[in-house]
Specification:
This protein is of the alpha+beta class and about 425 residues long. About 30% of the residues lie in helices and about 25% in strands. It binds phenylalanine. Phenylalanine binds next to strand 9 and strand 10.
């Protein structure tokens, strides 16, 4: 019943996000420090919130039920995320959480605080490349507002809201990304605004630290005569372009994604939205409204620290870890890596179809983290027989030593044998 590979299993309990001096822990702490400080995330208790307090949780166990990971979050029964091709099942009743949202319900139901931050390792069967790894980390944020806050919003904006002008804006409110029917539109809009203000502030806080690290890493620019050198202060808001785009999550409506323009490109950072009221209701908070977001820590840490490959986070090499021992955001200084080696395997695809994730799993089971990347380099359909041939290239590299040709050949032979046996393909070479 279990489809959890040994490599993935060996990652459970590493708690990278709790290791002092690890880039993921530093990134997590930066998020926590923003929400924990009333100067950066001001309390709204004067408007009737429960006592302002954000509780940070980071040691919730990774095995949860499909109920917590999907059902409690309004995922439909046929949602593809539930499939065994996407999710690691421990047995029929338990799985490795695919996102930190799996803990939303329990956090809300605890009635401990107005807001929660939940940081944890999450697990998804996925492709293999420099930015994807089947285990990664997320921080979830949830914030709730009570009846007095909602009444103040309504009192400040008497009369119905005209949603028509908003509906014309694709990233805002429209039929496909609606305000929930149970919500007063004024309240939902105010929750959305509170969410956007909070998250734009978070992004400035985090990228301000990243910009500072970049300045520290680059030599001071020579001053042009008569032009004073800019002091290394926090980056002004206007220097960091952000954009809100429409999102879609079963557990929020409306939903958005936030992107930031960093080092020449738009970077998708986080998903968020107004929490489905049924989730608040089930947590015993039917008189509250709330927002939630989820952010991937690896993606964020890779750009902040300039770390080029997601597998570095798992390295136990001192040349990596010692660089961040002081717990600060700083630019990663590359050290020489061991060489890459690749091997191709071509095969006839079975009539029933072929799943790349299943191949990714096999390569990981055979060669562990030495598989750096899996790349489809050729596909063609034979004109007469109609059969399709595919060729995959497996890139091998060890983080901490040089691989020998003999061990790579042995892995490749094992992979081919298992492909024939488990995926029903006919190996061509
Ligand atoms: N759980 C979502 C994901 O993993 C992110 C999210 C969290 C979106 C909370 C909305 C609210 O993609």
């Amino acid at each position: 019943m279990s489809n959890v590979s040994p490599t993935v299993l060996s990652r459970i309990g590493r708690h990278l996000h709790r290791l002092p001096g690890h880039p993921l822990a530093i990134t997590k702490r930066l998020i926590e420090s923003y929400f924990g400080d009333p100067r950066t995330f001001p309390p709204c208790e004067e408007r009737g919130c429960r006592p302002h307090h954000v509780q940070a949780l980071d040691d919730l166990p990774p095995v949860v039920t499909p109920q917590a990971n999907f059902d409690a979050l309004c995922f439909p029964p046929d949602h593809p995320g539930r499939a065994r091709s996407d999710t690691y099942y421990v047995n029929a009743e338990h799985l490795l959480r695919t996102h930190t949202s799996a803990h939303q319900h329990d956090a809300l139901r605890s009635h401990q605080a107005a807001g929660y931050l939940i940081s944890a390792d999450v697990y998804r069967r996925d492709e293999i490349d420099a930015s994807h790894y089947p285990v990664f980390h997320q921080t979830e944020g949830i914030y709730t507002m009570g009846p007095a806050w909602q009444q103040a919003v309504i009192a400040a904006a008497p009369g119905p809201v005209d949603l028509q002008p908003l509906a014309g804006r694709p990233t805002w409110i429209h039929a496909g990304n609606p305000i929930q029917g149970v919500h007063d539109p004024r309240v939902s809009l105010a929750v959305g605004q509170h969410l956007r203000d909070a998250l734009e502030g978070l992004v400035r806080h985090v990228f301000g630290a990243a910009a500072e690290a970049k300045r520290d890493a680059s030599p001071a620019p020579a001053a042009a005569p008569g032009v004073p050198i800019q002091p290394a202060s926090a980056m002004p808001a206007t220097d960091l372009p952000m954009r809100w785009i429409e999102g879609s999550f079963p557990f929020t409506s409306p939903s958005w994604e936030l992107e930031v323009f960093w080092e020449g490109q738009w970077l998708e950072l986080l998903g968020c939205g107004v929490v489905q009221q049924s989730i608040m209701d089930r947590a015993g908070l039917s008189d509250h409204v709330g927002w939630a977001f989820g952010i991937g820590l690896e993606r964020l840490a890779m750009v902040m620290f300039g770390i080029p490959d997601i597998r570095y986070f798992w390295s136990e090499d001192e040349r990596f870890l010692s660089q961040f021992a002081d717990g600060r955001v700083r630019r990663f200084v590359p050290y020489s890596r061991y060489p890459v080696c690749y091997k191709d395997v071509s095969f006839w695809r079975p009539a029933a179809g072929f799943e790349e994730n299943a191949l990714a799993e096999i390569t990981r089971e055979v060669a562990g983290d030495s598989v750096e990347r899996l790349e489809c380099i050729d596909t063609f359909t034979h004109p007469k027989t109609g059969r399709t041939s595919m060729c995959y290239r497996v890139h091998y590299r060890h983080m901490d030593r040089t691989l020998t040709n003999a061990e790579v050949d042995a892995w490749q032979a094992q992979i081919a044998a298992r492909m024939a046996q488990e995926l029903g393909v006919e190996i061509r070479g």
